[in-house]
Design brief:
The complex is a heterodimer of chains A (371) and B (377). Chain A is of the alpha/beta class and 371 residues long. Chain A folds into 2 domains: 4-264, Spore Coat Polysaccharide Biosynthesis Protein SpsA, Chain A (Alpha-Beta Complex); 282-365, UDP N-Acetylglucosamine Acyltransferase, domain 1 (3 Solenoid), CATH 2.160.10. Chain A has helices at residues 38-46, 60-67, 88-91, 99-106, 130-140, 196-209, 215-224, 245-254, 258-264; strands at 4-9, 29-30, 34-35, 51-56, 81-86, 116-121, 124-126, 144-151, 162-166, 172-177, 185-195, 230-234, 239-241, 281-283, 288-290, 292-294, 299-300, 303-305, 308-309, 314-315, 320-322, 325-326, 331-332, 337-339, 341-343, 348-349, 354-356, 363-365. Chain B has 377 residues and is α/β, with parallel strands linked by helices. Classes of the chains: A alpha/beta (371), B alpha/beta (377). β16 (292-294) of chain A pairs antiparallel with β16 (289-290) of chain B.
């Protein structure tokens, strides 16, 4: 077994407006019961990568609360660990709060025993087995392999992501931003397998090239300047990108479809998450639920359609919830009718009886709001 | 052994549970599923955790393997903290030979070493198959303050039902003056819940004495309590208020499940301040989904359930699949069971991993509870 560590990189997360105002994207609720970060952490675990570092940019309390001791993901709690790495200096100097500076300040690579690192972001949700990718990486002889996906809807999805071009041997020859001009593209999943030596070189080189560069910027720089051979790996599995509020909402709701859901949640690939000791969902005598996810602890007495209901949400009698994503402990009061609303945690909607967003613009209710 | 704990709990979980039929064929009764998410023993174990009792012995005998691995180190109930010890105690071979537990009291007698090592002041004896949510603090305090040798938790039952229970007769200060085991003519309606607090020193002496008595059945209700009463020991009744059920039969198991599904709120798993929460195993599963033609009313359902058909007044556990046009009323569907397209079932307990075939009609219009059990054991 090769010595592999996992690095979950939270430095380059997209913003989801109100939802990421007080927490990193990694800690945002997904499908009513997961945190966004659960997918990457579970992929590490299922790929037998037990030594994991999470590069936290900000909001370490939310991440810490979610991950706890990490024992949920560790195969062996003595051998495995999930360490949170934070660049405290970076907090007061935002432009310099990069993944590279975080490693430089918080993670002495010389003290970590590994040959390869898998660097993965939180926001590309998948059930990705890193093992065949690591194997392909080793066989290629390259020092770094970038994981990408061939897609045919690049004019709508994966906007602002890197897109690659390759030579005949599969080495990346150019990197551009996907600005949605053509539907067909090979899109970077911002996931890399990298040799220890190169990772150390990136840390060193960045001080000379640009101290504001991220690991990904450095790899792109190497490609552009033809300094390092960057191998590519085409990932054929399903990926749900969370790149914007709109993408979060639409992609979450698209998973209500059974077939779409079965592409993300595959057999023998559990996605672990923290437990909250909530009782099963309770349905009242007038409950009327269709095409929805309902999390434990939810109490449903009204009507719910095409929606995602998180833990301990209360939908009162006569209430109607359509096309909504409702976070933990929110109350939808008696006869309140909401449509196309994303409600953050602990919102209480009692007095406003009707609230309706549009397909293009959901209404977002911030944490703890009273309506 | 952790540092000194004043109170140790011993949970009796060794019974065979024959009245639950094939549900307990390969599983001890305390490990039987309950309320879509839990196992019965989660209730006494969570109650111990919420009381702050950190040392718990679980006495097991019948089909102990699964129960033993379920209990593990007590982590599911948070009982793996500092000063915590959860120990599963099955009969074992000793210098004197090998013995099964001959009765509830004998199970404790055979584990006197465990209790001696813990050296508690009080021992709480609990049953592994009761559904209730409580903290034992008040009862332990009553025991300590009154200076009783034993305190027995009692609940008022319907006088007509009283002959099914061990009945306590008390004076005006709730001192127990008489005990009737399943009496034909009960003179009180205070039934023993099988929940006791003993002063360990006193109990230890009575266990030793009982052990030597060849005519004893080595049972708390039949032998230890009557013997203490005969010796004029101080026995106190603690009046329990709230929801409490013994789920020893298919009918009572079904009924207790219905109490939660129909939101009678007596057990109150959904209280807002969430005191005395019930903890259980965290099973990894996909989110619970209700389909486009699904309908679920007056029910509870756990994560991982997929409901595409119609469900009313039922309990739907993890990983259960209810296919389109299936129709369930008053059913307790245990983990991993599958109800296929068009099947109609009424008043049933559907055992783990069982499959109800397409368009089958089971128990429709009947009042008695039927058990469907064709899953892989």
């Amino acid at each position: 077994m090769n010595k592999v560590i996992g690095i979950c990189n939270l430095h380059n997360e997209p913003h989801l407006g109100e939802l990421t105002k007080n927490r990193p994207l990694a800690a945002v609720t997904f499908l009513g019961r997961y945190g966004i970060i659960d997918f990457t952490l579970s992929n590490f675990s299922n790929s037998y990568i037990d030594k994991v570092y999470v590069l936290v940019k900000k909001g370490i309390v939310a991440i810490r609360r979610h991950i706890g001791s990490g024992a949920i993901w560790n195969r062996n709690t003595k051998l495995g660990h999930i360490d949170l790495v934070l660049n405290e200096k970076g907090l007061s100097n935002k432009p310099f709060n990069t993944d590279i500076n975080n490693i430089k300040e918080g993670l002495d690579l010389d003290l970590v025993d590994f040959e390869y690192a898998v660097i993965a972001p939180s926001y590309m949700l998948s059930s990705m087995d890193y093992r065949p990718i690591i194997e392909a990486h080793i066989n290629s002889g390259a020092q770094v392999t970038a994981v990408y996906q061939h897609i045919e809807n690049a004019d709508k999805e994966f906007l602002r992501c890197d897109k690659y071009k390759f030579d005949a041997a599969g080495n990346i020859t150019s990197v551009k931003k996907n600005i949605g001009r053509s539907p067909i593209a090979d899109i970077s999943l911002d996931t890399f397998i990298i040799n220890k030596k190169l990772l150390k070189r990136i840390i060193n080189d960045s001080t000379k090239i640009s101290q504001l560069y991220s690991i990904q910027d450095m790899i792109n720089f190497y490609i552009e300047e033809e300094l390092v051979k960057v191998n590519s790996y085409k990932y054929e599995g399903f990926v749900v990108p969370i790149l914007s509020l709109e993408g979060y909402v639409n992609n979450s709701l698209s998973l209500l479809n059974y077939h779409t859901r079965n592409r993300l949640f595959i057999e023998d690939w559990p996605i672990y998450t923290t437990t909250h000791n909530t009782p099963p969902a309770l349905y009242g005598k007038d409950a009327d639920v269709q095409n929805s996810f309902i999390a434990n602890g939810a109490v449903i007495k009204g009507k719910v359609t095409n929606s995602i209901i998180s833990r301990e949400v209360l939908v009162e009698k006569g209430a109607e919830v359509n096309n909504c994503i409702i976070f933990t402990k929110t109350v939808v009061g008696r006869d309140v009718k909401i449509n196309r609303v994303v409600s953050d945690k602990r919102v209480v909607i009692v007095n406003t009886k009707k609230l309706s967003g549009t397909e293009d613009e959901f209404i977002v209710l911030s944490q703890g709001a009273k309506l | 052994m952790p540092s000194k704990n004043k109170v140790v709990a011993m949970i009796l979980a060794g019974g065979k549970g024959t009245r639950l039929k094939s549900l307990t064929k390969k599983t001890a009764k305390p490990a039987v599923s309950f309320a879509a998410k839990y196992r019965i023993i989660d209730f006494p174990l969570s109650n111990c955790a919420n009381t702050g009792i950190n040392v718990v012995g679980v006495l097991m005998q019948y089909e102990s393997t699964f129960l033993d691995s379920y209990i593990g180190n007590g982590k599911k109930w948070g009982l793996n903290g500092v000063h915590c010890l959860v120990s599963t105690l099955a009969p074992r071979q000793t210098e004197e030979g090998a013995n099964w537990y001959k009765g509830t009291a004998d199970a404790i007698t055979q584990n006197i070493d465990f209790l001696d090592a813990a050296d508690p002041e009080f021992v709480v004896i609990l049953s592994g198959d009761h559904i209730y949510k409580t903290s034992y603090t008040e009862m332990i305090n009553l025991h300590e303050k009154s200076g009783a040798d034993a305190t027995i938790s009692v609940i008022e039952v319907d006088p007509k039902e009283a002959s099914r229970f061990g009945i306590m007769v008390t004076d005006e200060d709730d001192n127990i003056i008489q005990f009737q085991e399943k009496p034909k003519k009960p003179i009180s309606n205070l039934a023993s819940m099988g929940v006791y607090v003993f002063t360990w020193k006193t109990l230890r002496a009575y266990l030793k004495k009982d052990d030597k008595d060849p005519n004893s059945e080595h049972d708390f209700g039949k032998n230890i309590i009557p013997s203490m009463l005969a010796d004029k020991k101080k026995l106190k009744a603690y009046r329990f208020k709230g929801y409490w059920r013994d789920v020893g039969t298919l009918a009572s198991l079904h009924e207790a499940n219905m109490d939660i599904a129909l939101d009678k709120m007596e057990l109150n798993l959904y209280d807002e301040d969430r005191t005395n929460r019930i903890y259980t195993e965290d099973v990894c599963s996909v989110p619970q989904y209700v389909g486009k033609k699904g309908l679920i009313t007056r029910s509870i359902a756990n994560q991982g359930a997929i409901i595409l058909g119609h469900v009313d007044s039922s309990v739907i556990s993890t990983g259960v699949m209810i296919e389109t046009d299936a129709c369930l009323t008053r059913c307790v569907v245990m983990e991993g069971a599958k109800v296929k397209r068009g099947a109609k079932v009424h008043n049933a307990i559907i055992a783990p991993n069982s499959v109800i075939e397409e368009n089958s009609e089971i128990n429709l219009g009947k009042d008695e509870i039927v058990l469907i059990d064709n899953g892989k054991k």
